[in-house]
């Protein structure tokens, strides 16, 4: 590895130490359906977001709720203390398209219709509210 690559990799690793996030990969639902759920909690305080997700009727909300609990646990583990109410918020959350399974469904007159079974990856970052206000 060249010196320039090594330096940028070290900078990226140092930045990762101050970020608290969780990833959910290969969720078997379309990214469009998942974005409807994550738009509900973007920028929200984490315990309020957990309440919103718990009572949401959407199937994708279960995975996002589990992901948010994981991100909170990551923050607690790195800071070696419990998260208090009103301290953390969802700073960034986004959905990327995952691998797509391509299938054929039989159609009339000997044809076949293509079925695309989509999946997605969700990344969720949490941050402290006071840290954001100082910047």
Provide structural commentary:
With 135 residues, the chain is an alpha+beta fold. It has a single domain (20-130), classed as Ribosomal protein L22/L17 (Ribosomal Protein L22, Chain A, Alpha-Beta Complex), CATH 3.90.470. 45% of the residues lie in helices and 29% in strands. It has 5 helices and 5 strands; from the N terminus they run H-E-H-H-H-E-E-E-E-H. The chain has a 3-stranded antiparallel β-sheet. Strands 3-4 form a two-stranded antiparallel sheet. Strand 3 and strand 4 form a beta hairpin. Helix 3 packs antiparallel against helix 4. The two termini are 34 Å apart. The mean pLDDT is 93.
Gyration radius from CA atoms, angstroms: 19 Å
CATH topology: Ribosomal Protein L22, Chain A
CATH class: Alpha Beta
CATH 2nd-level architecture: Alpha-Beta Complex
The percent range for helix content is 40-55%
How much of the sequence lies in strands comes to: 25-35%
Mean pLDDT: 93
Q: How many individual helices? A: 5
Largest sheet: 3 strands, antiparallel
The number of domains: 1
Spatial separation of the terminal alpha carbons: 34 Å
Which short descriptors sum up this protein?
135 residues, alpha+beta, Ribosomal Protein L22, Chain A, 3-stranded antiparallel beta sheet, 5 helices, 29% strand
In summary, what is this structure?
The protein has 135 residues and is of the alpha+beta class. Helices cover 45% and strands 29% of the residues.
Draw up the topology in text.
Blueprint: H1 3-17, E1 20-27, H2 31-41, H3 46-54, H4 60-79, E2 88-97, E3 101-106, E4 112-117, E5 120-128, H5 129-134
Antiparallel strand pairs: 1-5, 2-5, 3-4
Helix pairs in contact: 3-4
């Amino acid at each position: 590895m060249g010196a320039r690559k090594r330096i940028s990799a070290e900078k990226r690793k140092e930045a990762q130490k101050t970020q608290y996030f969780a990833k959910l990969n290969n969720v078997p639902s379309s990214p469009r359906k998942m974005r409807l759920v994550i738009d509900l909690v973007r920028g929200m305080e984490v315990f309020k977001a957990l309440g919103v997700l718990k009572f949401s009727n959407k199937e994708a909300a279960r995975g996002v709720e589990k992901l948010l609990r994981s991100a909170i646990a990551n923050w607690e583990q790195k800071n070696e203390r419990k998260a208090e109410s009103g301290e953390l918020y969802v700073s960034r959350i986004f959905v990327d398209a995952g691998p797509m399974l391509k299938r054929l469904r039989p159609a009339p007159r000997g044809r076949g219709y293509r079925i695309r079974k989509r999946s997605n990856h969700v990344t969720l970052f949490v941050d402290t509210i006071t840290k954001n206000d100082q910047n």
